[in-house]
Amino acid sequence: MEMSQDRDFPRDDADALDRIELPAPGTVRRGTLRFSHPALADWSWPYTVVRGAEDGPRVALTSGVHPAEYPAIEGNIRVTRHLDPARLRGTVVSLPLIDVPAFLSRTPFVCPIDGKNPNRFFPGDPEGTFTEVMDDAIFRTVIAPSDYLIDLHGGDMVEALFPFSIYSESGNADIDARSKALGIAFGLPYLIASRPQPGGLGGMTVQAAAASGIPGIIAEAGSSGLLTKPETRMMVDGVENALRSLGMLDGEAREFSPVEIGQFTWLRSPEEGMWYPSVGTGDHVHEGQHVGRIGNLYGDTVAEISAPHDGAVLFITSAPAMPKDGLIMSIGQ
Fold it and tell me: Rounded to two decimals, what is the model's pTM?
């Protein structure tokens, strides 16, 4: 990626209402995005468009669906700030922060206005609560007009994770293959195929995109709400290589062989109390292996947690406070 700390690229800044107009080829546009929907009228979203001098794919680069996932947000900012439009083929439309109401309040996971997780309600609903209306507006404005989606995530304030990417298996062979290829090109150690399953997560950006015929990935790096340099670098390098793989930047894309995950299981706590994991992110576990326990506030063990199958620990709730049925870890096989 062509990076510069010193020179400004040709800019044509403009705010936007309900849609983002592209600037002239070879230029950058920055501004705030607003929506006419009454529920969103008091809020605005910073956006950047980098339009290449030559034609090519349009990529939506998003982050901040969970706004304490800071390497994702910082990686997005760095990419769009230093991407040279004169050397780009195609267009990158960046929205570094989606859950704007949660950012300054440092609210993990959910939008503080209605208490909903934005990455469970895409493509949204214009007749729903604030989060659903926000998801609908952003999906229609930023994601739906794009040819690809790269959605950057990481470990929120109480989440430790090992870097991985996710793509959605939608049943459309062409879209699924292109999503998988994009996930491989991003270069994180694990690649998860998200398949519909009982108890699985729904309403994610990549699921809604794939259902609309848009290949996409979620890339996850960073832990516990910390802005860390190595994980930020992973995000910048991953976007760079993904854009090279799409022919949007000069040079050969690096080749990666991530471990492919076909079964991604979320473990939930059978009791409330204090959570004491006995394994760490990146550890490999075996079916039936003890992975942690739940203790009450008297120090008694009230539940032992075992691995349901072999696999790698990709996510652990890092905070000890654990509600009943709360997420405690994920294991990918």
Answer: 0.95
